[in-house]
Amino acid sequence: MKREDEWFNDEEFWQQYAPIMFDENRWGEVPNVADGVLRLAGIEPSANGKTGISILDLCCGFGRITNELGRRGFAVTGVDITSSYLESARDDAKTEGLSIEYIQDDVRSFKRENAFNVAVNLYNSFGFFEDSGDDALFVKNAFDSLENGGTLIIDVQGKELAVRDYKEAEWFERAGFIVLTETMPADSWGSLWNRWVLIKDGQRTEKVFLQRLYSATELRALLLKTGFSSVEIYGGWDKRPYDLDADTLIAVGKKDK
Fold this sequence. Notes:
seven-stranded mixed sheet, 8 helices
């Protein structure tokens, strides 16, 4: 399959589903997630508003976290493939007087050698490529884009959590839509098949997609194989352990100085 034909290149999908995925709760969690990114990267807040630290936000979407980090004085670059999301992120940054670089590109293509202190991939946006080798390419590009001593943070739904929280189907109302979801394990829990149906004003929209699932051990192994010298695993932004009470799977890879 050509890259341009992959499901996540469907601009209309992202526009239609944005109110569902980015509701008030997702915007409300922004300060806490930004705090967590800095905590896991070992970065202290700046007293004068200027840090000299550069951060790369891969699959940045609307720039929720990107702009928040910019507000805190970091030099931030956001990369995403969805032009409408990037346009919104740029508009918000301009309104606030933030100097943030937004780039429309595929994370399998984007690389800026030794340019950033921190790279992040947040909000479960990892594992959607058809070819698992593209996940490795994504991580390699992030590794190469980090300076020596840099940190990569990936926040994703772990395989263990997908099994723990599995629901075959559910429905809910959000942002004026009726939302129907259906999921099924595929490839012996190697992936999760998803179907989302939105209904509003008599109109029905449907999207089917697969997400490759990584256990904590598998994600750590991928980062170590890429070249990261150490990988820590957490179950939340407060550094809680990745156990039965984990909220998410967060992998923190360190590149040798």
